[in-house]
């Protein structure tokens, strides 16, 4: 495994549309960016940030997330989420995650992922 560097960041973006609003995903009734979709984007940013550091056959799984969704974003808004590596403890990697739309910060918090061997993990599920 390549040395995981503290402070490394990675960002992903999406546009709010009918597929990721609260009324579609069942987390509310309004046509605004859904909290579960913001969380999924935070996990995606962290997972994609960590991937280049992993060896063949390894991946990471989310094990903890603690975030707030502080501002609503309407259909058409672009949401950009950035993950930053803030701690590494053997196979656990911790991230600061923030999501913004074009106007302001909409959510923030912390996320932890655990590095696993994909095949061994799947075998344990059988």
What is the CATH fold-level name? Thiol Ester Dehydrase, Chain A
Categorize the overall geometry: globular
**Largest sheet descriptor:** 5 strands, antiparallel
Computed Rg: 16 Å
Write the layout of secondary structure elements.
Layout: E1 9-15, H1 22-25, H2 35-50, E2 58-69, E3 78-89, E4 92-100, E5 105-117, H3 118-124
Antiparallel strand pairs: 1-3, 2-5, 3-4, 4-5
Protein architecture, described:
The protein has about 130 residues and is an alpha+beta fold. The chain has one domain (about 10-125): Hotdog Thioesterase (Thiol Ester Dehydrase, Chain A), CATH 3.10.129.10. It has three helices and five strands. It has a five-stranded antiparallel sheet with strand order 1-3-4-5-2. The longest helix has 16 residues, at about 35-50. The relative contact order is 0.24. The mean pLDDT is about 95. InterPro entries: FlK (IPR025540), FlK-like_dom (IPR054485), HotDog_dom_sf (IPR029069).
Task: Give a quick summary of the entry.
This protein is α+β, with helices and mostly antiparallel strands and 126 residues long.
Features:
126 residues, Thiol Ester Dehydrase, Chain A, five-stranded antiparallel sheet, 42% strand, transferase
